[in-house]
Specification:
This protein has 80 residues and is mainly alpha-helical. It has a single domain, classed as ACP-like (Non-ribosomal Peptide Synthetase Peptidyl Carrier Protein, Chain A), CATH 1.10.1200. Helix content is 57%, strand content 0%.
């Protein structure tokens, strides 16, 4: 999958978690803009891991602060 396909898939996965219907951009932050708490993050990461058949380590999760970083990380993990 290329970045655009990963982006489209993640947008559909994030919908049920995006309670405030925040407009997503690469700069959208999970903690600030989307107001994800730790439980929401865990559920969302699990959904991504299932969808893409990847594992996002705790270290990687700690480095991902915004939507664009997530799309880049998933795209990169798909290739490895």
């Amino acid at each position: 999958m290329d970045r655009a396909e990963v982006d489209t898939s993640i947008r559909s996965l994030i919908e049920p978690f995006n309670k405030k219907e925040v407009e997503l951009s690469d700069d959208t932050t999970f903690a600030g803009d989307l107001e994800f708490d730790s439980l929401t993050v865990m559920d969302f990461v699990a959904a991504i891991e299932d969808e893409f058949d990847i594992i996002i380590s705790m270290n990687q999760q700690a480095e991902i602060e915004n939507y664009g970083q997530l799309v880049d990380a998933v795209t990169k993990l798909q290739g490895s």
